[in-house]
Specification:
The protein is an alpha+beta fold. The protein has 4 helices and 7 strands; from the N terminus they run E-E-E-H-E-H-H-E-E-E-H. It has a 5-stranded antiparallel sheet with strand order 1-2-3-6-7, with no helix packed on it. The radius of gyration is 25 Å and the shape is elongated.
Length: 171
């Protein structure tokens, strides 16, 4: 049986806790049962929080309000949301990007990448269970069955320019 606990205090996100527990049991010499539970935390690193703004150019962007791009969507809910949200932004339902048949801009669009000082820590929980069978009568043989369930909340990840503009009108 084992347990662990960690307390950390960060100037950016305050106090954080992580803990885990593990147990192993061998009901017979050939069979091992293991189980774990863990809670984890990952705070944003300095670049994720405070990276300076740098210029970038996004190429191959598809305008999410382009009539052709909307018509190509297979998800009816997103298609309806885009029509409504683009109209609410004052973009006519007949809008198209040049002569492109799918709403793709011919040249790159300038933009800025930077850190996000409002990021919060990732939180994770995991459960595992294992059965290991190593028969004493069969040398160098073993069978292990593992089950795991890992869940992460508030994952820290960068979004692409396309994801960002799509999310503005998808929901």
């Amino acid at each position: 049986f084992g347990m662990a606990y960690r307390y950390s205090d960060y100037t950016t996100v305050g106090p954080q806790e992580a803990r885990s527990a593990q147990v192993q049991w061998r009901p017979i010499s050939d069979l091992l049962l293991r189980a774990t539970y863990g809670e984890s935390v990952r705070v944003p690193n300095l670049a994720e929080n405070f990276g300076p703004a740098t210029q970038t150019f996004a190429n191959g962007l598809v305008d999410p309000c382009d009539r052709n791009a909307i018509n190509l969507l297979t998800d009816a809910t997103i298609r309806a949301n885009r029509n409504a949200n683009c109209a609410a932004l004052g973009i006519p339902t007949t809008f198209t990007v040049g002569t492109a048949s799918n709403g793709t801009y011919a040249s790159g669009r300038s933009g800025v990448n930077s850190g996000n000082p409002f990021l919060q820590p990732e939180q994770g929980k995991s459960h595992t269970f294992s059965i290991a069978y190593q028969p004493s009568w069969f040398e160098n043989f073993s069978v292990v069955l593992d089950y795991y369930d890992i869940r992460i909340e508030s994952a820290i990840a960068a979004v692409t320019a396309q994801q960002a503009i799509n999310l503005c009108v998808n929901g």
